[in-house]
Amino acid sequence: MSWFTREIVEAGKLRLFCFFVAFILAFLFIRFSVRMIRAQVSWWPGNITPGGTHIHHVVFGLVLMCLGGISGLAVTDSRSWTAAALAMVFGVGTALVLDEFALVLRLEDVYWAEEGRLSVDAVFVAAALCGLALLGVSPFEISDAFTEEQNGDLLSHGEVVLLVAVNVLFAALTLLKGKVWTGLLGIYLTPLALIGAVRLARPGSPWARWRYLRKPRKLARAHRRERHLREPAARLMRALQDFLAGRPSM
């Protein structure tokens, strides 16, 4: 309990911690629920269809996000349990929305289609970024701007701009090279973005289309790396997705 008080409450992370816990639990619950509905088990409630209209859980998610977010803005004490409870409401709503992210993006029901994996990816990315924030890692290494150096001085405005610009450049290059996970996590971890920026691009990425068309050897290396490294990792990720969220059927 002393660790929780010191590292979470006193560090001002209570709302973020409650959001993170509620987000994870809500995602696991809703995936369990839809898998039970998909299996048509008799003891689990089915879809909500008043008047024959199927109400997707993204609708409830939007309502909860508005309720938790707007009400949370009215709470001045960020360390109060009221603020924590509203953060949990917001976390539940966010999980419900992101779980149907692919549906919202495509404006069609692709929940159990292969395209529906995008929703699970969105949840994984959000959970990873939230977890990094809980660990005290700030986006673009911006916390360095507010941390005194050994001589007691803060970074100047020019140094802050340079720090952020370099991080943005590395992350953008990584994303252009088709490394989405590395690029997004690189927003928080500059060394990771640097590694992604200097290494070979994925063969189907914008960078490969721009830079590798006249470099057949480099493009061939990219394809070999995709087969030997990326595809096994992708299979492992799909297996994890299927275990947690269910295998697509369409």
Report on the architecture of this protein.
This is Membrane protein. Keywords: Membrane, Transmembrane, Transmembrane helix. The chain crosses the membrane at residues 12-34, 54-74, 81-98, 118-142, 154-175, 181-201. The protein is mainly alpha-helical and 250 residues long. The chain has 2 domains: 2-134, no CATH class; 139-245, no CATH class. Helices cover 66% and strands 0% of the residues. The protein is built from 11 helices and no strands. It has helices at 2-9, 14-39, 57-73, 81-98, 101-106, 117-134, 157-176, 180-186, 190-198, 206-211, 216-245. Helix 8 runs antiparallel to helix 9. The termini are far apart. The model has no long low-confidence stretch (mean pLDDT 86).
Largest sheet: none
The rough form would be described as flat
- The quaternary state of the protein chains shown equals single chain
Structural class: mainly alpha
The share of residues in extended strands comes to under 5%
Number of helices: 11
How many domains?
Answer: 2
Q: How much helix is in the residues?
A: 55-70%
The secondary-structure element order is HHHHHHHHHHH
Distance between the termini: 47 Å
Which stretches are poorly predicted, pLDDT < 50 over at least 5 residues?
A: none
* Average of per-residue pLDDT values: 86
SSE layout and pairing:
Layout: H1 2-9, H2 14-39, H3 57-73, H4 81-98, H5 101-106, H6 117-134, H7 157-176, H8 180-186, H9 190-198, H10 206-211, H11 216-245
Helix pairs in contact: 2-4, 2-6, 3-4, 7-8, 7-9, 8-9
